[in-house]
Structures are given as structure tokens and as C-alpha cells.
Amino acid sequence: MASYKLATYQSAQGPRAGLVVGEQIFDAAELTGQFSYVSVLDILNDWRKAHGVLADASAKGTNGKGLPLASTKLRAPVLWPSAIYCAGANYSDHMLEMARAHNSEPEPDPHSVGLKPWHFIKASRTLADPDSKVTLPPASKEVDWEAELTAVIGRQAKDVSLESALDYVAGYTVANDLSARDLMRLPPVRPTSPFFSDWVGQKCFDGACPLGPWIVPASDIGDPQNLGIKLWVNEVIKQDSNTGKMIFNLAEQISHLSSRLTLYPGDLVLSGTPSGVGAARKEFLKPGDVVKVWVESVGTLTNTCE
Fold first, then answer.
1. Confidence class of residue 64 from pLDDT cuts 50, 70 and 90?
2. Which residues, 6+ apart, have CB-to-CB distance to 49 below 8 Å?
3. 37 and 29 Cβ atoms separated by less than 8 Å
4. Sign of CA pseudo-dihedral 41, 249, 145, 123
5. Statement to judge: residues 235 and 144 lie in one domain
């Protein structure tokens, strides 16, 4: 089976599922002859069969109907997932940097005190396309970057075991969990109040979830817990880590999420961010900044702030 990447590209008829093979992109429905494969969600809903069909079709590939990848507009690879789950405080190096920033003692390993993974939700329509401009929210002066490896669910998952959790992943993509840090707090509400935190304000402004540029099938990724992950702002490296530093690995996250609710094909699990965020540096994004996120074996996601 040949290697391919699954993407959404903008055609004259609107967004369509595409297969990236080398430096070309092919319409997935046309290349495979499966004319129901119009969108990436259509494909993910048939993932058990579709992965083999796509791999076989990509091996043939050069049928003269490909488009040059460099001049094709890519959209966020999944339009639109039913849910975007984001892991909070999930890298050991990030936990240490935030403890230093707040002059506090580092928290113990959550496993040692019986804690489970925890997630918040970003609205599906906060997705931003690769190479697009993201408008910084006028209400915030502290928009931060967060590089994240993202798992794309390929099978309906409910109460799945830790051992089988990764079998429900169709593939992996790259996300930037943009966060308006100063919109998280609600002064003059007391910090001890249960109403102090505004997760929607911090995490759900328009364009708050750049995603892409494509999905790499899980079968092409050896170990999702051993991938380099980096982020640059204006070519200056800010984050440089490895997914092995996750506190709760992806299998733990997916198993736990599925114990609470059903995961569906196309759902996204953003697995947390490593050290090097702007909040720890007292640096934040401004108009004109170019943010580039790279995950080893997956790809590079670039966006410009405005």
C-alpha cells in the first residue's frame, strides 16, 4: 500500500476530500471511484473500508487528474467535526514551566493521586485553515500559542479499553490551540469563586483552532508518543519538545473520554502542549506574527495573525 495524506481542498464546487501523493493532490472520490467520498467526514465514517481503498488508489495515483499541491488551497482537514476535545496541562515540561511562572511548587504526577485526564471543548467553528490569516480578538491583549499533536477519531468509540484505544484513531494532524489568556479571568470575581474562569472566552474565539495541513494515517505513524513537536513565531523557536513528555498519553485520553461519552468519526483530540508557551515568557501574539507548528512525521501548520 502506498503512503498518502488525507486533506480537504477547495475546489470550484466547494470543499472536497483529497489525497496528497507526493507533490500532487487528487480528488478522493474521483481517484477511488467511491463517489460518496465527497468530504473527509464521509471517508472517516467509512474508515474500516476506506483506508485500504485510499491506499490502493494512491498507489495508482498518476492518472493525469492530479492538481499541483503548491497551488491548491487546503482547508482544515475535517469540516466540521462534531467535537474538539483539548487536553489541559498535559506535558510534564509545561507543568514545570507554569509552576515556575507562578512561583509555586510543581503538582505531583496526576497518576500518583488517582486523577484522570481532563479536557475542555473548543467550538467546531473555531477551526482555521492552514496558511490562513487568524484575526486576533480585539478584547484580548494576551493571545498565546500552543502546539498540539491531534488524533482524528475514525470509529465510533464508547467505553473502549486502554489497550484498544489507539485502534479508534484514523490518523494524526497538527493543531495550534490559540488561547486568549486574559479572557480566562473574570475580574472583579474572586479567584476562589467557581465562576472565576471563562473557558469559552479564552478558547473559543473565531479562528482559535488552526488545524492541518492534512491527516497522516495512523498506520504511517509508528509511536504517537515519540514524536518531535516544535513551534516558531517569526522563525524564532518557542516550543521544542517530544510527545513522550505527555502526562496522560493518547490512549489514556481516548479511553477516558469514551467512558464519559461516545466519540464519533472526525472528532478531534488535541493532546496538550509542551513548554514554551507565551504565558510563561510574558510574550503574546500580535498582528503580523507568523506562527509555524511542526510535528514529526505529520507535517507543518502555518498561520499569520492579523
1. low
2. none
3. yes
4. positive
5. yes
SS3 per-residue string spanning the chain: CCCCEEEEEEECCEEEEEEEECCEEEEHHHHHCCCCCCCHHHHHCCHHHHHHHHHHHHHHCCCCCCEEHHHCCEECCCCCCCCEEEECCCEHHHHHHHHHHCCCCCCCCHHHHCCCCCEEEECHHHEECCCCEECCCCCCCCEECCEEEEEEECCCECCCCCCCHHHHEEEEEEEECCEEHHHCECCCCCCCCCCCECHHHHHCCCCCEEEEEEEEEHHHCCCCCCCEEEEEECCEEEEEEEHHHECCCHHHHHHHHHHHCCECCCCEEECCCCCCCHHHHCCCCCCCCEEEEEECCCEEEEEEEC
Cα separation, 72 vs 200, whole angstroms: 33
- The CA-CA-CA angle for residues 271, 273, 279, to 5°, reads 145
Domain containing 206 equals: 84-305
Domain count, the chain: 2
Which grid cell is 231?
A: 513551534
* Distance between CA atoms of residues 19 and 7, nearest Å: 6
Same domain, 60 and 193: no
Query: pLDDT tens-digit profile of 125-151?
Result: 999 999 999 999 999 999 999 999 999
Model pLDDT for residues 233-248, shown as the tens digit of each residue: 999 999 999 999 999 9
pTM metric for this prediction: 0.95
